[in-house]
Amino acid sequence: MSTDTADPTTLPSGPTTDVSAAVRAAQEVHTLRVEVPGIGEVPLPSVDELAFVGGLVALGVVGALEWPLVAVLGVGRLLSHVHRWRSLAAFGDALEHA
What we know:
With 98 residues, the protein is mostly helical. 59% of the residues lie in helices and 10% in strands. The protein contains 3 helices and 2 strands, in the order αββαα.
C-alpha cells in the first residue's frame, strides 16, 4: 500500500530537484512538533538544541553561571542558528537560479 505523504526525514533527489524544497526538508528534519491542546501544533528546536538550552538553564539555576551570561549564550546560539538557516536557504536559491 502506498501513500502520497512525503517522509520529512528524506531529502528530495534527482536531476530536477527543487533546491529550496531540499532546504525546507533539511530544516523540517531538525524541527520537532508538539500538539498543544487549544493552541495546535507548536514547532520546537531539535533535541540537541533543547538539551543545550536546558543545560544553560540548569547552570543558571544552580548558580554555576550568572543569568546575564546564560541569556547572552542563549541569544548568541539562537542568532547563529538563524544565520545558518538563512545562509543555507540563500545557497539553495543561488543553486536553483544557476
